[in-house]
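Hi, here's the filled form for the chain we discussed.

Project: internal
Contact: R.S.
Residues: 242
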Amino acid sequence: MAVENVGNGKRAAVESMFDSIAWRYDFLNHFLSFGTDMLWRRRAVKMIGKHIKPSSILDVATGTGDLALAALKLGPSKITGIDISEKMLAIGREKIRKKNADGRIELLKGDSENIKFPDSHFDAVMVAFGVRNFSNPLAGLIEMCRVTKPGGILMVLEFSKPLSFPFRQVYNFYFFNILPFFGRMFSRDKNAYRYLPDSVMKFPDNEHFLALLSEAGFSSPLQKKLSGGIASIYTGIKPAAQ
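And the returned structure, exactly as it came back:
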């Protein structure tokens, strides 16, 4: 099912799409990024640790739980992951069980734009490669700000668009030609890996996303570009007075 132009049905379309590719999701992430996605997650977790030693963490759009597992290095008492795809969550729960981490990580079905936790509940909130799939990115950021404790941190790891020549041209060729070809071949979903580059191109990255963080209520928004600008780590702090 194509995700573009679905309007208010985007949430259901994204849920269906990720359910359909869940069985190949981890393999394709590592294969198509040459393993760089794992490095990016480790660096993203370190960015959280530079600001705070969190006891409670919310991982939004957790997928199969890779970011939640990486965040165990921060030593939290509890990590809660939420995602709209039950099939992704099922794979994540099995991975967590095999790593004997099910006592510290809990994965729940949940919507990023209607988070079922009270205000100021988590020391840190994080999301990797999920914000561009939100029906309304600003609404999701506002919700994440709401559940973050004053003084707590939001970390967003997301794809961005490299700007320099010739890296931009090489990146675009890979992203629009090679990646969809292998994605279709291995996942058997002809739309999912066409949706990926389209969603990245439409995502408000760089200074536009920093502005969204401020609009959502976060202070001191920062961006750290990774791998020549292929991905970025964004952070924002919930003001103590909020």
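Let me know if anything looks off before we file it.
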